Amino acid sequence: MSEPVSIPLKDTALVVVDMQRAFFNETDSLGRAGLDVTPLRAAIPGSIKLVEMARKAGVPVIFTKYVYMPGMVDFGANRGAKAEDRMAQKSLAHGTDEVEIIPELGVKPDDIVIEKSRPSSFYGTRLEPVLTSMGIRNLVICGVTTNICVESTARDAGQRDYGTFVVSDAVAEFTKERNHYALFGIGWVFGTIATCADVAKGWLGEDAAAAAE
């Protein structure tokens, strides 16, 4: 049996990574490029729970969006899987509906939304200045995909000495193997692997933890 995980409430923010329509809808650019996005939908229920819990507990919620500038000028030379197809389809391009965060997460007009064009939520973004100004020292992370954007964000957070917690039942990857090894690597060095129940207990108490299991 794994040891219980203690999730801090003080100086903590929830970071919801790239929960955008393109990562879940097979008719958007990633699906049209030949990627099966259906396994990624496993991250949706847990992420919804975490956002709801954070709002109840008064924990700041920070969303990220993977989106390229007009003209795809920041698409980059190291483009990854299905790059030519994604470039041709202007995948995750600024101004397209597919880059919007899914409505189930209930993003509010005054929520913090960090746009990025690389896997890490820290690289080339305003995330760290935002966290510094808010006095945040602990991050609870959920979203997609576990092996790419979630892991990159967790690695950068851990190396910056944030308390880093990745919620295993609120993330997803294209394959089970990649999901497993990403969580294993994060938990080995860069952070702590938690569950929605762990977060509920830390933020809302024992009764909430039982309901979140």
From TrEMBL:
Entry-linked CDD domains: cysteine_hydrolases (cd00431)
Keywords, comma-separated and alphabetical: Hydrolase
One GO molecular-function entry: hydrolase activity
Name of a matching Pfam family: Isochorismatase
Name the UniProt record assigns to this protein: Ureidoacrylate peracid hydrolase
PANTHER family: ISOCHORISMATASE-LIKE DOMAIN-CONTAINING PROTEIN, PEROXYUREIDOACRYLATE/UREIDOACRYLATE AMIDOHYDROLASE-RELATED
Domain Isochorismatase-like, chain residue ranges per copy: 12-197
